[in-house]
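note to self: dont lose this again. the chain is below, predicted strucutre after it. 332 aa total, dont forget to put it in the shared folder this time
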Amino acid sequence: MIDLTVIWAGIIGFAIVAYVIMDGFDLGIGILFPFFKVGPDRDTAMNSIAPVWDGNETWLVLGGGGLLAAFPLAYAIILPALYAPLTAMMLGLVLRGVAFEFRWRDPAHRELWDRAFTLGSSVATFAQGVTLGALLQGITISGRAYAGGWWEWLSPFSVLCGIGLMAGYSLLGACWLNWKTVGGLQRQAVTYAGRLGIALLLMIGIVSAMTLTLEPQYSARWLSYPGVLATAQIPLATVIVTFLFYRSLSRQKDVQPFLYALALFGLCLVGLGISIWPHVIPARVTIWEAAAPYRSQVFMLVGAGVLVPVILAYTIWAYWVFRGKVGSEGYH
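---
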């Protein structure tokens, strides 16, 4: 049944997907940044994301703000449970943004700002993965409040999720550079994309296998009959997309590897949805239990109905304007 609560879950889910797609590749470029040659190659990598990187984070704000407004109970439980990784993520994003701007305005200390750019990107990405892992492994709740300890979020599983997301974002970054650059930097990006694809697939396999052991709900969703007939299509689709990804790399395509890498992320997000739906806090709180009052949802939906199309419009326009190849001096 589709009601207002489901619609709001869809809006927040869309914001999260948009953030992963759009901010993932520029965070990935930050993680890979030390491996690029100092000078024109690094300048080119930065120029490839300069017109869009700050706008990409709009979706993170929309997702976080939407969670607070539409599902206040979930927000009140998740924040105390994940203060540490979420704070680390925000500090990483701030450091990354400052470094991005100051590497151009303070060339005398460009090496320092390059390192800060990599550090901020890596910390933000790792913290996002840890946050996802901590949610999946379960949050201790008593009544309507968080009842766990300060370090409950930290576990081998959450750390693996952090490492896996770093591999995934790095893959997106390499594929983006393959699309947007030429010459030696493009060839380097293709090499990295091939290696990172293997790393991501390995992490997907490990994390997926461990996820099945975390909650009975997860294994029941994926392995019980007849549901397994549908869920088995996800790993099958992953194999097909992986084949298409590596074929496009071998044929020296520009755009297709990036799209196939996004498809791998999309399959992971579909798998995540299969595991946790309809819970906003997996295996603990459903979206209906956490939802704001009906009138509040209606009021906010009016605003979202105006703002989301506007955000989509200027985002699409920005990507269209800067759709060509890029060099060390900017877009061609």
